[in-house]
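Summary for the steering committee. The consortium agreed at its last meeting that each partner would contribute one worked example illustrating the joint modelling workflow. Our contribution is presented below. We chose a case with several input lines so that the handling of multiple components could be demonstrated. No manual editing was applied between input and output; the record is shown as generated.
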Amino acid sequence: MTLDSLTLARQQLLVPAGLGEDDLQRTLSCLLGHAIDGGDLYFQLRRAESWSLEDGEVKQASHAIQQGVGVRAVSGEKTGFAYSDEIVPPALLEAATAARAIARHGGDRPPQAWRTGGRPALYQPLDPLETLSAEGKIKLLEQVDAEARRQDPRVTQVMVSLAATHDTVLVAGSDGTLAGDVRPLVRLSVTVIVEQQGRREQGGSGGGGRVGYGWFLEEERALWHAREAVRLALVNLEAVAAPAGTLTVVLGPGWPGILLHEAIGHGLEGDFNRKGTSAFSGRIGERVASPLCTVVDDGTLADRRGSLNIDDEGTPTQCTTLIERGVLKGYLQDKLNARLMKTAPTGNGRRESYAHLPLPRMTNTYLLAGESDPAEIVASVERGLYAVNFGGGQVDITSGKFVFSASEAYLIENGRVTRPVRGATLIGNGPDVLSQVSMVGNDLKLDAGVGTCGKDGQSVPVGVGQPTLKIDALTVGGTQA
Amino acid sequence: MSEAIARTAAPLPARDQLETLVADILGEARRQGATAAEAAVSFSSALSVTVRLGEVDTLEHHRQRGLGVTVYIGQSRGSASTADWRPEAIRDTVKSAVAIARHTAADPHAGLADPARMARETPELDLYHPWPLSAEDAIVLARECEAAALAHDPRIRNSEGASVATHSGLVIYGNSNGFYGGYPTTRHSLSCSVIARDDSGMQRDHWYTLARDRAELEEPAAVGREAARRALRQLGGRQLTTRQVPVLFAPELARGLIGHFTAAVRGGALYRKASFLLGRLGSAVFPPFVNLRERPHLPKGLASAPFDNEGVATVDRDLVSGGVLQGYVLDSYSARRLGMDTTGNAGGIHNLIVEPGPCDQAALLRQLGTGLWVTHLLGHSVNLVTGDYSRGASGFWVENGALAYPVEQITIAGNLNEMFKQIVAVGNDVDARSGIRCGSLLVERMTVAGE
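What follows is the complete predicted structure of the assembly.
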């Protein structure tokens, strides 16, 4: 239960500082001493570690602790913000005094009484750093290294990293919000370099989630990433120049869902739409995709990297439908933008840390399964590109133009997947691209759990997913004109 | 206005307070069994204000402390960090680092930098120019900046706002060989991002000014007008058909190309054999007219530093001379891995100057003749192992040296090895807002993918 998380968060964040909930009420009252609409306090303690292997040995590791409290005051469209890396009463009051400066003196509303809620937790409130001994972490890294080297003699370098964060947060808002969350997160990444007759290529694979390290030991997950990284690097050794121009593109299931994150998700974040700066602004109810497409943002998937019990404003996460059978349905909201747009928050108010302001952000964004057999989708293409793995992506939310970079792709010739091609950027226009979707596979898959999204200089973990998709026309940025 | 709106960013703590902390950390490391250690303690403070459509959007006070330590037990090492400066936190942080070092494998290349290479003195680089800016005054400046953008043209109808930020910081680094050093720095900026709209749709662009000294910032109204001008000129962009053409990179993008070069000659990429420039020391990477000089001691330089993150004295040097690669970008670890000496680049390169050519932007457009002038890039598909380069782009189609029309939703692709060799001109339109100072770069031929 998240109620347990709140208890844990109190113990971790308030008790050591000698803070009680009356201190939080006092700080919120201080904020409300000015003519502001509301405010909140965000307490955080984050412990993180990273172990890395190179040359077959674990020679580097680091441990980091980050803690503090962010104080925010909101008045109309104005936000005042200050934070302290000391969780002590004087620092809280000082931050509150700085934050409330956006509005004049003269408020006298008391903060609302606490409302705490609970629902079954989406992940265990565990400390992942403690789920494996130091020796166990080193052994895991060494096993991944050995597995990668065992795959092929052309493997010349293997780099593996294993990282975990244990994030405990407590949110107290003048609207009565009092919520806590304990968020474990682990991640494994494998990068290999292969060499053949002087040609060098790299391949990478990784995964993780809101679990302990033991998850990597189950079902050979860690070893799978070692094999996958080598497979990708070897495919790249055979890759020929990618085509340049507009052609039919078949996207594989899972991580290629970065398409939805860039092309759709960012443009539907509430801040851009409240300000009217998104290519999707004012288009709710319009057809923006083929009727085969339904896209959701779902923060409630168990153990997923992009999932949260509550967002960073204390709002429980939910599954929000963004596009339903091709029609634009909804935006992703935090409290500020929801209030200004006279709608409800959707549990998408997220922040990188106590030292950053919350913004509307995605959680796990994916397109629901359709009915086509993936093999039939590929067979239906005379000449095109089959792209199954991607690096990052980026979008200009105002013009709607977005890119995502294929790192494993093949030519489709006469309905058959043939030669691998070199990495290339794919570019399209967000509000149009899903109109070009003519087939949707029945093989919905979510990514392995490595996604990080950047916005306004803030990074947060996210997930993506999709089934196999056929896009009739997309521009492929290769060199082979 | 209320009491706090007159507040400025928090002042820096006294330097000797941070030095004492570094000494405490190194002492604690020794007590806990470290045979060598290095530590850095930092404090930074910032005030930033964003105004949107004339009203305050955000007012942020930042104040951040940091403390990081790396301990060595023989040749094994461990690192830990925290924001907590209390003695018990120092003890715990060192303990975490020591615990790690007791588990990591001995690495013959690990260790502090060569004591003989430590900076003996700290040259005055004029990097600290505090700006006692109150939030109230920052709001006035941001308003002036945005107002100039909105007044520039009726098609500028919306805005993401104008921001003013002032940042100051102090970092003290010390190691168990007896080196202690540190210096305060400041950085101030003013930026504006606006949206132009007409029947063809919306285009957003921004402009910013950034300097160590506020006296060197561009005027707020000039920044606003430039943001507006940039957003407007992109309206009505079209796709191009797929073709091979010469490409002119605007200075703020050209420095990114040079950034790919520096990433590929960095020690970490070289000893891992993960660079397309592996083994190219002493050979031509660029055409003979290209010279890249590292100048770490430029007064007020954005990447100036008297010593690097290991205390190694920084020195002037030519990284590329007559197009030929003269050296790598190394810290002491990667240098030992490569059997070389550190180049004083722990933490990065310190002001890389791309020697400007004779041509201004107009002359470069004439030299481009018919081709693509790229003003924006999207995405990061750059493979440093192979040099493969493919990115989303927008800008202008140029015919006979004159702008024909804006273009968007295209990609440009090539291989960095070939692109570097195919540079045919370096502009004198240098963008100094970064640690890489570079003018426009004209590349002879790339593949444009579009319709």
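Residues 216 and 462 of chain A are 19 Å apart (CA to CA). Chain A has two domains: 2-237, 244-477.
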